[in-house]
Amino acid sequence: MLKVGDQAPDFSLQTAAGEVFRLSEVLKKNNVVIYFYPKDDTRGCTAQACSFRDQYDVFRENNAEVVGISSDDVQSHQQFSAKHQLPFTLLSDAKGEVRKLYRVPRTFGIVPGRVTYLIDKKGIIRYSFNSQLKPLEHVSGTLEILKTLN
C-alpha cells in the first residue's frame, strides 16, 4: 500500500456517466477520498457506499470529493449508483491498473482489496485504511482525518 506522506499517483478513468475523471484536475479544487472496493452490489460494498452517501454532505462541507473505484464495468456502476442513489463518482478500473498504482493488496490473494485513501489538494496522501471486513470504518476514519485538514 501507499503510505501517509506519499505523493498520490495521477490517473484517468471513465466515470459511470461516460466522462473522463482525472485526479489532478479534481485536486485543483478539492481534497479527494478514493476508496477501492471489491464489487458492486455485494453486502459490504453496498454498506460502505451507502455510508459514504449518507455522509457525503459532510465530506463536501470539508472540501472533499468522494470517488469509488472497482473493476466493475461502467454499466454495473450506473445500475449500482442509481439503485442506491449515490451522489459521488464511481470509476471503472477494469484492467486493475489504478489498483496496482495504489498498491491495493488482494485479500487471500484473490479478492480485490478494500482500501481508502484521503489525498489533500497538493496530492499528498494524508490517510490510508485497509480493511476488508470493516467497510464502515473507512468512512468514519477518513472523516476524522479530513476534519483536521481544514
TrEMBL record:
Keywords: Antioxidant, Disulfide bond, Oxidoreductase, Peroxidase, Redox-active center, Thylakoid, Transit peptide. InterPro entries: AhpC/TSA (IPR000866), Peroxiredoxin_AhpC-typ (IPR024706), Peroxiredoxin_BCP/PrxQ (IPR050924), Thioredoxin-like_sf (IPR036249), Thioredoxin_domain (IPR013766). The active site is at C45 (cysteine sulfenic acid (-soh) intermediate). SUPFAM superfamilies: Thioredoxin-like. Monomer. Its main location: other. It catalyses: a hydroperoxide + [thioredoxin]-dithiol = an alcohol + [thioredoxin]-disulfide + H2O. It comes from the Bacteria. Belongs to the peroxiredoxin family. BCP/PrxQ subfamily. It is found in: Thylakoid. Signal peptide: none annotated. Residues 2-150 form the Thioredoxin domain. PANTHER family: AHPC_TSA FAMILY PROTEIN, THIOREDOXIN-DEPENDENT PEROXIDE REDUCTASE. The lineage of its organism: Bacteria, Pseudomonadati, Bacteroidota, Cytophagia, Cytophagales. Thiol-specific peroxidase that catalyzes the reduction of hydrogen peroxide and organic hydroperoxides to water and alcohols, respectively. Plays a role in cell protection against oxidative stress by detoxifying peroxides and as sensor of hydrogen peroxide-mediated signaling events. GO terms for cellular component: cytoplasm; thylakoid. This is thioredoxin-dependent peroxiredoxin. One of its GO terms (biological process) is cellular response to oxidative stress. GO terms for molecular function: thioredoxin peroxidase activity. Its EC number is 1.11.1.24.
